[in-house]
Every structure is written in C-alpha cells, then in structure tokens.
Amino acid sequence: MIYFDNAATTRPNGRAVERAFEYLQDKFFNPSALYQEGLNVKNDLKQAREFLISCISNVQDTALVFTSCGSEANNQTLFSFAKRGNCIISAGEHSAIHETANELKNRGIELRIAPLNPDGTVNQEALLKLVDDKTGLVSLIHVNNETGSINDINSLAAAVKKINPKTVFHSDGVQAFGKISYQMGAAVDAYSVSAHKIGGIKGVGGLFIKKKLYNVLKPYIYGGGQENGKRSGTENTFQIKQFQYAAEDKFKTLREDLQKLHELREWLWNALDKTAFTRISTPSGSPYILTVSVPKTRGEVLLHMLNDRGVLVGNGSACSSNAKNRFSRVILACGIDENTADGIIRISFSNQTTREEVETGAKILNECALELKKRMNL
After folding, report:
1. Would you put residue 233 in left (φ > 0), alpha (ψ -120 to 50) or beta?
2. Domains recognised in the chain with CATH numbers
3. Which candidate, 32, 58, 274, 361, has a CA 20 to 30 Å from the CA of 210?
4. Across the chain, which distance is largest between two alpha carbons, in Å?
5. In angstroms, what is the C-alpha Rg of the chain?
C-alpha cells in the first residue's frame, strides 16, 4: 500500500507511542489527584504543555489548552470571542470553522466571508474592507487542507489589528503545525492544532492562546474544571505525552522535511501525464500537499480505482466526505470551473514518504487517469 492521504491523518509515530506507553501502565494516575503520583503526572503534563508552546511561541505570553481535536479548539475559540458585532472568516476555511461560523450566524452574529485569490490564499484587500469597529473575531486558516495554500497570518493579523486593535485574530493551524516554519506573531491571539496530523494519535489537539486573552476564553466543556477551568474532563495523559514526543521528533527535522517533500512533490507533478492531469495547488504552497484534477471526470471514481491498485489518496477534506454538495466550496472559491473541480484528488505526504513510493505512485496515477479518460471517451 502507498499512502498518499497524510493531510487526512498520519501513521502514529511508533517511537512516540513507545515512549508514552508508561502513561498507560505505571503512570496511569489522574493528574488532578492530590497524592504524589497524581502530582507527578500533572507535572509531566506541564512539561508537555511548555514544550509544545515552545515550538511556536513562548510560555511567558502564550498558554495552551489541551482539547480532543482541532475542531474542538476551533469551536471553543469562535464561541468564546464571536459573541457580538460581526465575525469574519475566509471562503477557504475548513468545515470546523465554516460550519461553526454558520451556527453563529444562526444565533444572530453577522457573518462576513472574505474571498480567495486564484491560488487559494485569502484576498487581503477584500478582507480588510470587511473589518470595522464592530468586528469581534477574524479566523483565517494558515495552510489550506484542500489546496495547500499558505496564508501569511502574521501579516494579515497585523493588518486587521491596525484597523481594529480589539479584534481577536485566530488561525486554524492544523495543517501547518510541525510542517512549516512558523512563530506566532504578536497580533495572532489564538491558534488551533491537532496531534494526528504529525504522527500523534487521534483524539488530542490544542488551542494556543495569548495570556492576555486567556481569562476571556470560555469553557466549551464544563465539569470538574480541568485545564485550569478551560476544558473539563480528565486529561488523557498518554495521548498528550505521545503528542509531545511526536512533536519533538517532527520539529527536529522540520526544515529537512520541507526540502525533501518539496523535491518529492515536484518530482511527482513532473512525472504525471499532462494530457490527463491539471495542477490545482501552486508550487508556493505547502510541500505536503499536491492537488490535481482530471477534468470532466469524477475524482471519487479515480480515488477508488487507485485504491484498488494499492494507492490511497484523498479528494478534498476528509471531514467533509459526507457533505451533500458535489463540488468543494473551497475549490470553487478559487475560481475553478465545475468540470475541473469534479475531477480533483488530493495527494498528501508525510516525512515518511519515500522516493520509491512516489515513483510507483506516479506510474499508477497515470495508468488510472488515462484508463478513466478512455472509459469516458475523453
């Protein structure tokens, strides 16, 4: 099997699982317990928290709330800070932001949506025209999960704050954390991440938030007051520590991985048959994602053909695979026509992807695409 759907999820880092296994056996204690064993585990969670913060910010001005996933972190942010006035998102947001923002709209919050440039990035000029003195929250995705396009969120946040310094700026960093070089700028207030995109285990994520806003953040889950009252429920110490260890490994090789995957992605694109494939993602986007289309075909059909031959790819956001709409709203927002949007597949890599997999994958991709075109008399 050749796995090319790492934007959906990654294989858990086995070394990190082994290192964290003691929290399922010897260190299984509740971190809220007052006896020494519980206090020791609580301190281990503190170490994990501080390390993860250090990856993109510093513990002096940034806090981290552990959540069950990036979607929960996104929800908590929007429901905490988009309470009045208007909320702005982009047309390229993941469903965890898009659907939450629409629920806020149902509750009476004015929703404004900034358009995209053809490369999938947010149109800054149009965005800034939407910001006014009543804008409570702006949430812009860092790396788009469907196109791999990268928004310069530090710059965008600073521009938003220049118009309204009181606006809270949030970014969904799920496809960026541990994959591209980034440090939270002074104007970025909150940033959501997810462990399973970088070799962590599904079921743990986090919300980085500047301490100046920490007390304003409202719990999304109420109960025993864990996570300093910001997220009740006993912390999953095994998953959190495994997240820490996976991140340690990932950040050690971050720059090396960027170069390696940029070369592999471009090699794969150059090897694809241009009579069949059209490129959607741009070379300036995340090297972890290559989005292509076989126009006038169905991407889902191609996905299943590839699956039958041992190659696993995605056809957009895995979180939206049950959506009723045939065409991706994100892809259409980039100005892509419906014939091309219908034939899209997303090829996504990890630092474990090999040149051999890419070479074999290219051969199978070409065979399946040409066979599909022949079937459809294209």
Report:
1. left
2. 2-9+254-375 (3.90.1150.10), 14-251 (3.40.640.10)
3. 32
4. 72
5. 21
In degrees, to the nearest 5, what angle opens at C-alpha 205 toward C-alphas 160 and 353?
100
CB burial of residue 333 (10 Å; 0-12, 13-18, 19+): buried
pLDDT per residue, tens digit, the chain (378 aa), is: 999 999 999 999 999 999 999 999 999 999 999 999 999 999 999 999 999 999 999 999 999 999 999 999 999 999 999 998 999 999 999 999 999 999 999 999 999 999 999 999 999 999 999 999 999 999 999 999 999 999 999 999 999 999 999 999 999 999 999 999 999 999 999 999 999 999 999 999 999 999 999 999 999 899 999 999 999 999 999 999 999 999 999 999 999 999 999 999 999 999 999 999 999 999 999 999 999 999 999 999 999 999 999 999 998 654 445 555 679 999 999 999 999 999 999 999 999 999 999 999 999 999 999 999 999 888
Determine the Cα angle at 340 with ends 361 and 326, to 5°: 100
Residue 21, sorted as left (phi over 0), alpha (psi -120 to 50) or beta, turns out to be alpha
Q: Exposed/middle/buried for 25, CB within 10 Å: 0-12, 13-18, 19+?
A: exposed
Q: Round to whole Å and give the CA distance between 278 and 128.
A: 32
In angstroms, rounded to a whole number, what is the distance separating the alpha carbons of residues 331 and 317? 11
How buried is 212 (Cβ within 10 angstroms: 0-12 exposed, 13-18 middle, 19+ buried)? exposed
| Beta carbons within 10 angstroms of residue 16's beta carbon | 24
- What order of strands is seen across the sheet that includes strand 205-210? 62-67, 205-210, 190-194, 168-172, 135-139, 86-90, 110-114
- Residue 129 and residue 330: Cα distance in Å, rounded? 21
CA distance 140 to 308: 37
Nearest C-alpha neighbor of 292 from the set 312, 276, 306, 308:
276
